[in-house]
Amino acid sequence: MVVLIVTTGRVEQRVVDVGRELTGDVDSLIGSLRSTINASVGGQPLNAAEGLLQTAMETVKPEHRDVARPSLPVWWTR
After folding, report:
1. Is 9 exposed, middle or buried (0-12, 13-18, 19+ CB in 10 A)?
2. What is the pLDDT of residues 23-78, one digit of tens each?
3. Cβ contacts of residue 41 below 8 Å, gap of 6+?
4. Beta partners for residue 4, in sequence order
5. How far apart are CA 27 and CA 7, in angstroms?
6. Alpha-carbon span 4 to 32, nearest angstrom
7. What region does 32 belong to: left with phi over 0, alpha with psi -120 to 50, or beta?
């Protein structure tokens, strides 16, 4: 689940299907992705988030990009 809280107080939640079962150290993987996403867009204007997230994906380990990538367009495909 991806949760977005904007400065107006609006909260948006989306369930993200990554297309496969997550195995291994799932907590560490999700924690790492959460940190990457929060560091890239935290405090930034919403209209800049898409570009910032695309850039942030370059820092995600290649073997984890298939898990991270589906969470990006969930906000721009309404």
Report:
1. exposed
2. 899 999 889 888 988 898 888 888 888 888 888 888 888 888 888 877 666 555 44
3. 48, 49, 52, 53, 56
4. 12
5. 28
6. 17
7. alpha
Q: 33: exposed, middle or buried (C-beta count within 10 Å: 0-12, 13-18, 19+)?
A: buried
Cut 0.85: pTM above it: no
Which amino acid type is present at position 43?
G
Distance CA 11, CA 74 (A): 14
Amino acid at 39: A
At 16, is the secondary structure helix, strand, or coil?
coil
Which residue, 58, 55, 15, is CA-closest to 4?
15
